[in-house]
Amino acid sequence: xxxxxxxxxxxxxxxxxxxxxxxxxxxxxxxxxxxxxxxxxxxxxxxxxxxxxxxxxxxxxxxxxxxxxxxxxxxxxxxxxxxxxxxxxxxxxxxxxxxxxxxxxxxxxxxxxxxxxxxxxxxxxxxxxxxxxxxxxxxxxxxxxxxxxxxxxxxxxxxxxxxxxxxxxxxxxxxxxx
Length: 178
What we know:
Elements: H1 11-21, H2 24-45, H3 50-63, H4 73-87, H5 105-112, H6 115-126, H7 131-138, H8 142-161
Helix pairs in contact: 1-2, 2-3, 2-4, 2-6, 3-4, 5-8, 6-7, 6-8, 7-8
């Protein structure tokens, strides 16, 4: 099969085809679908460990097919990545690591969020996973996950734009006479 023949296959069928034939084109197609979103997610959660975590993820996927247990492959990839990030022996993702791009307010703001809020926001907004799947990844109730999502969004907005509760003040300017 050529590269173009794989576009019509869903992720699970493509993974099954890869593990039955070991076709590099099938794996390339699967990798191309998720490499960018997984990389962005990993770097925002733990910049220093992103490469190691992704290498471990793709290596395990190449070696043996994952047990999906009725889940979609997309969900499994992010669940597994999250697990690898939590077990990464490098720098603690909750420590105050420098933001990768200090001049980008959004990226710097995301790095200032607590780990759980940052993870929920990234999984839902960047990775486009439903909150129910995010709650499953974080082992939270859906209600608690929604609360943390809204709390994280509000905190991020406050970091980027400042507090909404701050009243406008006009400072008096004294005239200087010479």
